[in-house]
Amino acid sequence: MTEPTPDTWRRVDAYLTETLVGHDPDLERAVADQHAAGLPAIEVAPVNGKLLHLLARMSGARRVLEIGTLGAYSTIWMARGIPSDGRVITIEAEPENARIARLNLDRAGVGDKVDILLGRAADVLPTLAGSDAFDMVFIDADKESNTIYLDWAARLGRSGTVVVVDNIGRGGEVADPAAMRPDVIGTQRGLEMLGRDPRFDATALQTLDLKGYDGVAIALIV
Ligand code: DHB
Ligand code: MG
Q1: Rounded to the nearest whole angstrom, what is the distance from the C-alpha of residue 1 to the centroid of ligand 1?
Q2: Which helix (H) or strand (E) is 106 found in, with range?
Q3: Which of 30, 131, 200, 216 would bridge 104 by S-S if both were Cys, CB 3.0 to 4.6 A apart?
Q4: Pocket residues for ligand 1 (CB within 6 Å)?
Q5: What is the pLDDT of residues 30-78, one digit of tens each?
Q6: Domains located in the chain, CATH noted
Q7: Given ligand 1 and candidates 167, 207, 210, 216, which is best to mutate, with the most ligand atoms within 8 Å of its CB?
Q8: β-pair type (87-92, 162-166)
Q9: If you take atom 9 of ligand 1, which residue's CA is the nearest one?
Q10: To test ligand 1's pocket by mutation, which of 42, 91, 166, 207 has the most ligand atoms within 8 angstroms of CB?
């Protein structure tokens, strides 16, 4: 038993990805085009994309809300996990990201299941009030706003909705009570809300994958 080094966990991540996720030309092309277009390489790792896909299927989700589209890599994974008459509503603040996302979604054959709403999520989310409840919510945008996004997830979901929050480990900084970085503080506030707010029941897992040391929170709206 050795302590994991970056070399170990990248090797294991590659092994798990090869063994359990495999290769998909549309997903790999989406990532390649997103990188070529200069978008940051912060899309979820393939093993986490598959986790989102499986959670959508396990929960029988028909309506999925995503906060933070980037190039739609995670969006494609989730859209493939819902029925053909299901819908993913994904919110993106950057027009160039949304443009790349639309190309990737259409090429992957899921474009007709996905609406990209352009704007800052804090402005767009209130416009969704009154729509049918979401069955799954994936929060993966500016970490400073995680409590706002969780509050909207609770309002726009229903009892039984699955809520996933990306990047809850932040290289270990999340456990630092003296953290100064706004993204770390926002992540901490979000986790504290998940632990305390009676609308949620939650856990979180630390992750080591090709993106490094981070984590994912998974919550149920009670
Ligand atoms: C960052 C954001 C993400 O959503 C992610 O998965 C990794 C990094 C970031 O802003 O640094
Ligand atoms: Mg993320």
Answers
A1: 30
A2: helix 95-107
A3: 30
A4: 42, 140, 166-167
A5: 999 999 999 999 999 999 999 999 999 999 999 999 999 999 999 999 9
A6: 6-221 (3.40.50.150)
A7: 167
A8: unpaired
A9: 42
A10: 42
Could you say which residues of the chain have pLDDT below 70?
Answer: 1
Q: What per-residue confidence (pLDDT) applies to 1?
A: 66
Predicted structure pTM score:
0.97
Minimum CA distance residue for ligand 1 atom 4? 140
Report the C-alpha gap between 137 and 153 in whole angstroms.
6
Ligand 1 atom 2 nearest Cα:
42
From CA 216, how far away is CA 183, in angstroms rounded? 15
Scan for tokens 């919110």, then name that residue. 91
d(Cα 130, Cα 32) in Å, to the nearest integer? Answer: 37
Cα separation, 174 vs 185, in Å, equals 8
Question: What are the E-state strand segments in the chain?
Answer: 63-67, 87-92, 114-118, 136-139, 162-166, 200-209, 212-221
| CA neighbor of 68 nearest in space, from 158, 2, 164 | 164
Residue whose tokens read 């991540």: 13
Residue written as token pair 């100064």: 180
Strand, coil or helix: 192? helix
Integer Rg of the chain from CA: 17
